[in-house]
Fold each of these.
Amino acid sequence: MISGTIIKNQLKHTLDRTDFKIGKKYEGKVRDNYSFDGKRLIITTDRISAFDRVLCSIPFKGQVLNQTAAFWFEKTKNIVQNHIISIPDPNAMLAKECKPYPVEMVVRGYITGVTTTSAWYNYERGVRDFCGNTLPEGMKKNQKFDMPIITPSTKAEHGGHDESISSEDVIKRKLVDEKVYGQMEKAALALFDFGSKLVAKNNLILVDTKYEFGELNGKLVLIDEIHTPDSSRFWIRDSYQKLFNEGKEPQKLDKEYVRTWLADRGFIGDGPIPKIPDEIKIEAAKRYITAYEMITGKEFDAKNGDVLERIEGNLRKINIDVKKG
């Protein structure tokens, strides 16, 4: 396991943002996107977001997300086509430019969560029809659903809040064509089933996740990220049942740790963001890195240093001019 000292030393080198003069830039909560020549350069920064707010930066987080996504894109390319061209840097992905669909496919295997869009938050407040899914009475927090459910979400503009809706609403609002939406549902469930079985071998539970799709040459394409600690919840498998039976929280390997820390201080998205101390950032980094290693079975290559400078050098190697603003 990577030492806390290496993580602590990287606090001053986190990748907060990029400002390259490459094509057209779009800045998401975590990723900086540059579109040019039918391609998209995606730089995964170290920013962490929760409750639809950017909170701070976590050492090595961008590298974990980018390399985890690359692992899954390779593993799942036979299930659904994806947009990957190459991985020129641990924090960068070169992809084909696709037309994104304005709906995220959220697949949930367990009832949990602390955000206002989570299944448990709504269930606790009496909601039994959740995004078109009928939830049975008597469920407990962190309980497994009989079958995974899909709860689509609209993709909010930068700074806005995502909205959970039903598949019926997706069609009614004409966000996605009915035939295409059917393909998205089928692909999402197949990806979730594959991911769940793979991580189970590594003592993990894939609790829930989101998938984003786009269109390229008339075909459905998986874009953005897949089964990362940002887009997914992971729990430790062998301790889950005992902790659940005792009414305790499962061991977690995702940014739910930071969400819970904030929620315990009364922050769930509105008002000023509480200052997140270094020890919380370091612990979050450890969890991200552990998730990467457990998912992929690979040792995480953590090196202290200027991430932006390294990215610039690697992009020049593939003839991408990174003139900075």
Note: DSSP finds nine helices and 16 strands in the chain.
Amino acid sequence: MKKNIAVIAGGNSSEFPVSIRSAEQIAGELDPDKYDVYKIIIKGTNWIIEDEKTGQIPVNKDDFSCNTPTGKLKFDCALITIHGTPGEDGKLQGYFESLNIPYTTSGILSSSLTFNKKATKLFLKPFGILSPASIYLYKGELIKTETIIDKLGLPVFVKPNQSGSSFGVTKADNEATLEKAINHAFEEGDEIIIEEFIEGSEITCGLLKAGSKEIIFPLCEIVSKNEFFDYEAKYTPSKAEEIVPARISADKTRECQSLASYIYSAVDCKGIVRIDFILSGDKFYFLEVNTIPGMSAESIIPKMARKYGISLKELYTLVIDDAFIRYQT
């Protein structure tokens, strides 16, 4: 009997449209012989199922079901594709665990930890994981730009502490642009992180661990034609080169893959994850963990998967099977 899979998209952050594109791509790749696929869009308290046959139907949040013209529809597994809150920060994970519904991402604690850049860096520091020096600010806190510059120098990257797709991120080259960057980052949330600029190559590693099976994709080297890999560069093909495999030595490739695998396990990730680094000289500096990386046609993970030699249909079958196994155990 085919399983009912809920592909969950949308969310409450600026990444809403990115999530919708990811969900459309994933829904089209799932094996129709194994799954009946339904797209569920979440925006605040408005949860609806979008189906060609039934149209738009509200989701009953009491048991995560829908009343369709043919009867009550329940879901066997939640495939979460929301970038940002509530999909990437542990909220939906807690909801599905309370209902005993398998889901495809990292758990509550891992999702909450990795969504917070500050907490992740602090957690990984005792493990010897290098990361750029940084300062954290909270909305309403006294901001002294000269103190920031004294500690981190210029340029710096100013980022919301909990966001993705480079929303709210600015590279600040002087004191005036630093103040504007801080205000811009606070538009995305109440906490921001300011990181020193490290010259080097941006390298990202995608991977998946499912039971005893580990898939580590070929590395991707990101070369932005903008000042940095911002939202436009991420989602406009002409604005960045995403080179797979990365143009680094075999030894450095293995080192990065091993480091990514270590971080994946250290923060207890599940499902498909992408971990970003800067390679400066001979050292890798950790940037962040993406527990729900983009899966739209222009995203990096699909490119990595093709180079690895696995189809997205095979990849997501593996992810869904692992979700069921984890639920049973």
Note: The chain is about 30% helix and 30% strand.
Amino acid sequence: MFRILVASAKGGVGKTTIATTLAGHYALAGKRTALIDADPQGSSLSWCGKRQVDVGRVLAVDGTRRNAPQRIPEKAQRVVIDAPAGAMPRDLSGFIDIADAMVVPVLPSVLDMEATVRFLNALADVPRVASGKLPVGLVANRLKPRTQASQQVVEQLSQWPVALVAHLRDTQAYVLLSGLGKCLFDYHSESVRDHQKDWEPLLQWLRRIRKRG
């Protein structure tokens, strides 16, 4: 079992999009996949409920209930945890204790980056993070690759002490796919493949962590 916690100190950064896309990818790859929605908004649960597919089904788990980490199916091979929006590390201790990797999305704005700095500073005091047992990776989300502003953000994030593991471009495709219970990896058109390539560095980073463990 490999467990990925997707968390951020700020809402609206694409946390659920990353969680559902990862879950969809793993399920389509033939892995028994569970998606734990610990966010009271229930967006990941809603996505799972809309996911009417023959291949790539994702098991939904309500993570807002008591003892949510103990509700993970024993036979699950991949588990993606969608943390509550705006939760700080102290609020996530139950999930941090069981996670094998942690993904932190950040948007290219001053407010989002400041919130992420506070989140990462608090994470640094978590023993599993400080010891390296829980790797943490940043994902720069909703970038406009050809703009100077996005390029400056990527350069700044690259200098942070936490690894920048992926750059995801801004696109309305995620909004449309979410409403259908789909993810990028459900499709194979040329335009979608360009967006799928954005995910490969993140997937490679997660593969390295899984093999190391």
Note: Helices lie at 15-28, 43-50, 93-96, 110-123, 127-130, 148-158, 173-180, 190-212.
Amino acid sequence: METPVVREDVDVTDSLLLSRPAFMDVRAPVEFNRGAVPGAVNLPILDDPQRAEIGTVYAEAGQDAAIARGLELATPAVRGERLEAWQRHTSAHPDGYLYCFRGGLRSRTTQAWLAEAGVKYPLVRGGYKALRNHCLNTLETLGPAQRLIVVSGQTGCGKTDLIHDWHSALDLEGLANHRGSAFGGTFTPQPSQIDFENALALAWLTQRVGGSAPVLIEAESHLIGRLYVPDTVQQAMREAPHVRLIASHSDRIQRLRSDYVDHALAHCQQSAPEDPWGALSNHVSDNLQRIKRRLGGATTDRLVVAVPGAVDALQRAQDPSGFDPIINTLLVDYYDKLYQHKTDQQQSPPVFTGSHSEILAWLEAQA
């Protein structure tokens, strides 16, 4: 009979994160929801009320009293419930690790309870705090010396498509679950700020060890939806060379129609099946109102008035072209002006300008 492999507790390293183990996060849900390691599963040893109560006891009477209260709360029923969830996880993920905030009492207690049930499961030394610090340190390594190339271009030219079609890229908008414009919401929640940063760090770590090809990243402002692009990433993007993607005006209108109308309609058909067309009209009009200050009151009002007619043509005749004048105005009077302002602020010209296929060919020559 083979001797079982004894897996030891581990320190946080690049290799640990790159192996993407199934982390078991035993912190309370309120802690987990603020941020966790990508792919971690929250199986807390203390729920939120228990954590709050023990924290109060700790503050008022010290660690020993807090531990004693924790043991009182760990009734046979509670302990059995926790163990059952943990054993399901450890059975499904025998190569995983567990962590709490600092790799201290909660991790050790979880390990001890599992060991008593016959399960040896290793923990991450330093816990989530060490994992988080490693992610932040990883983001510090972004920079022009690390093959980063920024993709710039007017709204609707297909920057995201280019990012997806190149094998080495950091998809900021994908990680942020937002397309980065006034109409960029995806109808599903964005991650927490910390989850966004941790996922970005892991994505960059993967690219950093993945070869010598240029790593594309889309030019973004400091905010993607409600998420802030870390200062280190913004600085790296300012210093990196950039390529400029170009596309025809008609192609840009067609792409934005797909992004802004088709995608929104599919969502409305799921979320408001009783009146998806009314929901679509409200969605487009509400987004126009959000940029009224920059677009101008008269222009915004004119576009809002045009929305119901465009929706009606799409509903009755499957004709989406009624949205084209609206999108054209958005491009000319809003997005292109913003892009030109950013372009005027750039200190260096692009290292290459071309279409989707031309940039891909240029990138292949650099690899």
Note: The CA atoms of residues 313 and 319 lie 5 Å apart.
